Amino acid sequence: MATIRVIYENGSPERVIEFDPAKAPFQHDGQPGSVLDVLLGHGIHLEHACGGNCACTTCHVIVRQGLNRLSEASEQEEDMLDRAPGLTPTSRLGCQAVIEDRHAEIVVVVPRYTINQISESREG
Amino acid sequence: MERPTYRARVERIFDHCEDTRSLFLRTVSDTLPQYSPGMFVSISIPLANETRVRPYTIATSPEDGEPFELCFNLVPDGPGAAWMFERTVGDLLDFTGPFGAFTLERAPECEMVFIAEETTIAPIRPMLRRALSQPAAHQIHLLYAAERSEHLLYRPELELLSNAYPRFRFEPLVIEHDFLYQRLLDEVQRRWVTSDSGRSRHFYVCGIGSGVLKLRHLLREAGYERRAVRYERW
Question: Does the beta carbon of B172 lie under 8 angstroms from any beta carbon of chain A?
Fold first, then answer.
């Protein structure tokens, strides 16, 4: 079984999920087997304003462990991540980062600010 | 951080054609937050066993105030679109946002090319209006494609703008669906890659499916700076 541990920067209690990547998708939004899909499918909220379609950065997560166990980021995801508040070298969009390894141990941090509303936008 | 949820009432409904509709919404107790042209709101769609969130671009300009317009089409097997099509005047919708990174707050000081297909004109429309409202001499092009002419939304408005602003060139294209993106690729290749060595333009592409990514790839491979090719793929 794979595991994903979710740490919230805002201090909310951590959550740990065990799941079988082979059973993806777990619900309707984001890439099947993505961090977003797994979390939502196990009752854990992760914001996804665009419905998991790689059109915003509200599902931005920082991968603290298991980055190399995630699918490679597409150019589209990289383009969107450029605009994520608090971007780090291990940032991913939860709706696009797919966990395929059945024994992966993933740890992600949900940043305090994950929005690109007007107050946070960087216009280019 | 708790994200605020807003409530809006359907004030007016406009049918562009049989499968494309606009809802005009007015917030109930708060005003719509400030936003940039191109942004979307995230609507809560109450389905039988769950509530889903679906993004809908604001097709009006921030300068227009409220009511604000959401334009969408009836997607086959799309529960969100079906629910939106069932809304009537007076219905209430809950949403968060506005959100989005495919925006245009200030036009760049260079030629601009907008490319859209059918309802994906929704973010382009306010972006275009913002660009035209800012004094500049640079050319602005809009390539707008659809399989049927009735799916070229806001056409009279866009034609009026092209008459009012000589630097704006509006080019509607009616193209069979299977050939739509190949035609757009050919146009872009011919006009802004092969026949012109300049690479200072900015592109804003909004469309559905992989064709958008092919346009992005074409332009970036041709030497356009990565951030000069902005896109949103639905």
Answer: no
The residue written with tokens 């004109």 in the block is: B121
Give A-chain residues touching B42 at CB under 8 angstroms. 49-51
**Among the partner residues B40, B52, B231, nearest to A28 by beta-carbon distance:** B52
Q: What is the DSSP letter of B192?
A: I
Q: Do A118 and B102 touch (CB under 8 A)?
A: no
Question: Given an 8 Å threshold on Cβ–Cβ distance, is B34 in contact with A80?
Answer: no
Query: Which residues in chain A touch residue B97, judged by CB atoms under 8 angstroms apart?
Result: 49, 117
The answer to whether B60 contacts chain A (CB < 8 Å) is no
Q: What span, in angstroms and rounded, lies between the C-alpha atoms of A96 and B119?
A: 24
What digits encode the pLDDT tens for the residues B94-138? Answer: 999 999 989 999 999 999 999 999 999 999 999 999 999 998 889
Q: Quick one: average pLDDT of B139-156?
A: 97
Q: Judge whether A14 and A6 are in contact, CB under 8 Å.
A: yes
Q: What is the pLDDT of residues A54-106, one digit of tens each?
A: 999 999 999 999 999 999 999 999 999 988 888 899 999 999 999 999 999 99
CB neighbour class for B212 (10 Å; exposed up to 12, middle 13-18, buried from 19): buried
> How far is A107 from chain B, CA to nearest CA, in Å?
21
pTM comes to 0.89
Contact at CB, B230 and A28, closer than 8 angstroms: no
Per the DSSP assignment, residues forming a β-bridge with B96 are: B42
Q: What is the ipTM of this complex?
A: 0.79
**Phi/psi at B228 (nearest 5 deg)?**
-90, -5
Q: Which residue has the higher pLDDT, A88 or A119?
A: A88
Beta carbons of A97 and A73 less than 8 angstroms apart? yes
B33 part of contact set with chain A, CB < 8 Å: yes
Q: At what angle do helices B210-221 and B180-189 cross, to 10 degrees?
A: 10
In contact, B27 and B8? CB cutoff 8 Å: yes
Tens digit of pLDDT for each residue in B14-73? Answer: 999 999 999 999 999 888 999 999 999 999 999 888 888 999 999 999 999 999 999 999
> Cβ–Cβ of B52/A57 closer than 8 Å?
no
